[in-house]
Design goal:
By secondary structure, this protein is α/β, with parallel strands linked by helices. It has helices at about 55-65, 105-120, 125-135, 155-165, 185-200, 210-215, 235-240, 245-250, 255-265, and strands spanning about 10-25, 30-40, 45-50, 70-75, 90-95, 170-175, 205, 220-225, 230-235.
Amino acid sequence: MSNGHSDGEAPAVVEIRKLWTVFKSPEGEQVVHRDLDLTIRRGEVLSLVGGSGTGKTVLLRQILGLETPSKGEVSVLGHPPGRMSATGAANVGMLFQHGALFSAFSVLDNIAFPLRELKLLPEDLIRDAALVKLQMVGLEPQQATKSPADLSGGMIKRVALARALIMDPPLLLLDEPTAGLDPESADGFCDLLRSLHRELGLTVVMVTHDLDTLFDLSTRIAVLADQRVIVAGTARDVIAYPHPFIHEYFLGGRGQRAMEALHEGAPSPLVAGRPGARAVPSTER
Ligand SMILES: Nc1ncnc2c1ncn2[C@@H]1O[C@H](COP(=O)(O)OP(=O)(O)OP(=O)(O)O)[C@@H](O)[C@H]1O
Ligand SMILES: [Mg+2]
């Protein structure tokens, strides 16, 4: 496995060592992760790909601190996940797959929710902070009073993203950020994510089944199969790795177009000219 370690690389933001996840049920044990290792460095946009049920969402939830692994270690900026920073802000923001906005709250109240929960700031500052984030994700102030039911799918994703960013976390987790969006909205959302990644200097861990999103945004791809990360590297590293899942995923019907894009657009969109590419020198082969 290649994690791209070498001297002079950006510091690790997420370190996962020998992680096991075992779910017990009356039918027996299900081992989801077995001795899984992964390091994510500052400035990366690392995409996790893997078949359905391979434990991608569970891994994000473990990085966020919502779940604890059965064995092994996860650290975020050198601490156990779920810890607040010295200023009380969250280290990790997460965009959940289905947006998960509170339907009874306005757009602004949804974005402000994590700050209100902290009860550290006066109301006017909380509103200002939420309005700044609303603007940051490309929405107009007029949208602030709307209810989630009155928003398009793309706008719901943007509001959920604004909420994930309300505490200025250095690490952002995205679970299927473009799932369910039409191609135009998906492209717009990728553009937004790319500019936020660049402007805010974020480290991003993304789960996606969408090859366009994968190739558009990732600086590195990690493949989850056989209960662990079997390979992590550039698209070329990953595609060259012999494994049935990779063959099917990238070289099957829908993967063909992605491959063509890679060959046409030399150098690879994943290694050159991408924000964060600096932090990820092309992996040693
Ligand atoms: N709390 C839980 N208790 C028992 N089993 C669980 C729990 N959470 C997840 N699982 C199981 O762990 C496995 C991995 O789930 P996970 O949601 O991480 O998959 P995934 O890779 O995100 O899949 P998809 O691509 O379909 O979203 C699944 O078999 C799921 O049923
Ligand atoms: Mg999932």
